[in-house]
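Re: the request from the purification team.
They wanted to know what the chain is likely to look like in 3D before they choose a buffer screen. I agreed to run a prediction and write the result into the notebook, where they can find it.
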Amino acid sequence: MTGKRFDFKLILMKRKILILALSLFIFSCNEKIDEAKLEGSFYTNDSGSAKGGFEWAGEYKVSLDIVSGVGTLYLEHISGLGDPLTEHSLKVEDFKMDGSKIEMKINGFKAVLIWTEKDKIWDGRYNLHYIGNNSLDSSERIGSLNPSSFPGLLEHFYVELRLKRKL
């Protein structure tokens, strides 16, 4: 009988440890982060959707450094005929990040980027990124992003921001 009680206590102890470990893991995944170093890309065109008929399209390399919920989004033009952006360092405020999304204000406009396991717009090129856009095509829309956040772009422009943690 003593062996069975010992086995039962051992099983209970293992179960408690497992529950504690899972609780800590879940808490850490949902923890709001207000300090981060992120990198990625920004794509824009003048059609209103990701792959629509556009006259102009461009892409930018992006980095974002956040301390205490505030930081700067840096955009470096890497492709596209000309660069309509008039500013390449944008103010970021109210930054919050967890395992499912990033919320922030870019130049005073709210942005929401959603954690995307499988990127359906670009055939997986941006898997495992936080992505936000403003597509007019509801099947492409992810999160929310306002073209007015990016000085020089017009209201009808498609904008897409993709971020991941710097390694």
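For the purification team: The chain has two domains: 1-31, 36-165.
Please add any questions underneath this entry.
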